[in-house]
Amino acid sequence: MQQRISVLIGADNKCVGTLVFDDTRPDASQFCYADSWCSDATAFAVSPELALTVQWQYFSSLSRKSPFPFAFADTEPESWGCRLLKAVFSKAGHERSLSAVDFLLAADDGSRVGALRFVPEGVQLADTEAGKDLTLPLKDLGQTGRASR
Fold first, then answer.
1. Which of 12, 22, 63, 73 has CB atoms 3.0–4.6 Å from 2's, for a disulfide?
2. H helix or E strand, kind and range, residue 85
């Protein structure tokens, strides 16, 4: 199944472009900047390998760990976070395995690193304040560390 994901940036959620991921090709993705982004005088390439153009650009995980452009892949959970997501997904009774896009979209805005936001087509943009509730408060880090041991 093909998923179209809006890529937004900053507090004002300015549209940067569209990311497309297809489960039938889990090792690849494609991205296209929005016309409005490219025509803005303050526009910039959000990742070194993403030329600032409205042409579709294709990426593959064959030469690296993620099928997404570097700046997008950098927001994915690390290996420990992926293990946690797999455990939660399995405990909830889901039988399918998680795809690369599942991990990309799993990080809520309260815990994601950077200014990029990813919103699947047809999904309303989540309230940033609601996402903050999903991130462990600093006071619980000691307890979390002890529990992980």
1. 22
2. helix 79-91
